[in-house]
Design brief:
Elements: H1 17-32, E1 60-68, H2 72-79, H3 85-98, E2 103-113, H4 118-135, E3 138-146, E4 156-167, E5 182-187, H5 196-206, H6 223-227, H7 235-244, E6 248-253, H8 258-262, E7 271-276, H9 284-293, H10 297-303, E8 308-314, H11 319-328, E9 333-341, E10 347-350
Parallel strand pairs: 2-3, 7-10
Antiparallel strand pairs: 1-4, 2-4, 5-8, 5-9, 6-8, 7-9
């Protein structure tokens, strides 16, 4: 016979199974709202299912990506603004899929916390579902882990996993990238999800409070609300441009490493990007970060997107057509420069950044 003198339960150890069940009940309608051809939007099984044939693919190549949100999470935790951090999680994954010409199909999340709060968890997962709808992919599963002792009670972490597909032979970058191809920049919604360790350090040095009005033009929002603005999801406008024109040759998601690291990732040997910095419409938040933190231009360009979340390389003859489609789909487009012969640098900056 077992000894039950201590009478301990899992809940007394810090893990509340009932809270986990309540979270699942709360998020089911949000998950169901992400259904799309190939996935029914239901959760509860041991694994999520996706039917490529039902999604309309004939000879697909799968593309996978995973990412997190970085220390932007700390701002969400400190401000209590959890509603949109899930959009960031989806964006960081699906934007990496579409740059390879892939349509995002499904998404899975991992949510770990010190103490599960079903209301907080619902807000986070609703944001993930919102991001999935913006990207056109289904949320087919995930994992919630309550881990007392590993995380403080209010802390949590997120990781996302996305899978997309493109028909064989249609992946990007194209093999015909060449000198004279035009670089278009798509405006970011703000800082997106990179560089937040530096952002938080600058806020700390400034003495500004997250709940105070932003110390720059921000439409009346607080500093915290401005910094938590979710990463823009470019999937549907870019897929429209890819499918409706023959001009999109390469895409670069401007994340960690900024212009300097990300544009060269899609360029073949022998080509470089010539970027006119004066063409970049720099949002006020970046000017404040640079001035308050004394951040140099070069450091800004290798840490932040500075107002450009995606770079599109297009054939010169198709530039107007591609730009028109992107604008029709709601994007703000900047003509950033062209591809040139490479010498000693893979990105050559011209003009002055408006910091």
């Amino acid at each position: 016979m077992s000894d039950t003198r201590n009478g301990l339960t899992y809940a007394q150890a810090g893990v509340d199974i009932d809270a986990g069940n309540e979270l699942v009940r709360r998020i089911k309608p949000h998950v169901k709202a992400t259904r799309r051809p190939g996935a029914d939007g239901e959760i509860g099984g041991f694994g999520g299912l996706f039917d490529l044939k039902a999604a309309g693919f004939t000879d697909p190549v799968l593309v996978a990506a995973n990412d997190g949100v970085g220390t932007k999470l700390k701002i969400a935790i400190d401000t209590g603004l959890h509603d949109t951090i899930g959009i960031d999680l989806v964006a960081m994954c699906v934007n990496d899929l579409v740059v390879q010409g892939a349509e995002p199909l499904f998404f899975l999340d991992y949510f770990a916390t010190g103490k599960l709060d079903p209301a907080q968890g619902e807000a986070i997962v609703k944001g993930i579902a919102d991001g999935c709808r913006l990207a056109g992919c289904a949320l087919i599963g995930g994992e919630t882990a309550e881990m007392p002792g590993l995380y403080a009670e209010k802390d949590y972490d997120l990781a996302g996993f996305a899978v997309g597909a493109a028909e064989r032979g249609q992946l990007l970058p194209s093999a015909d990238l060449g000198v004279g191809d035009v670089l278009l920049g798509l405006a970011s919604s703000g800082v997106h999800s990179n560089g937040y360790s530096l952002v938080r350090r600058i806020v700390e040095l400034s003495g500004a409070a997250y709940d105070a009005p932003a110390p720059f033009k921000a439409g009346g929002r607080t500093l915290g609300e401005t910094l938590i603005e979710p990463t823009r999801i470019y999937v549907k406008p870019l897929l429209a441009a890819i499918r409706e024109t023959a001009g999109v040759k390469a895409l670069a998601h401007i994340t960690g490493g900024g212009f300097v690291e990300n544009i060269p990732r899609v360029l073949p040997d022998g080509l470089a990007a010539s970027v006119d910095m004066s063409a970049i419409e720099v949002p006020p938040v970046f000017r404040w970060l640079a001035a308050t933190g004394g951040v140099s231009r070069d450091e800004m360009l290798r840490t932040f997107n500075c107002g450009v979340g995606m770079v599109v390389a297009v054939g010169a003859q198709a530039a107007d057509e591609v730009e028109a489609v992107l604008r029709r789909e709601g994007e703000s487009v900047m003509r950033l420069g062209t591809l040139i012969d490479r010498t000693d640098r893979s990105v050559v900056f011209q003009g002055e950044l408006k910091l």
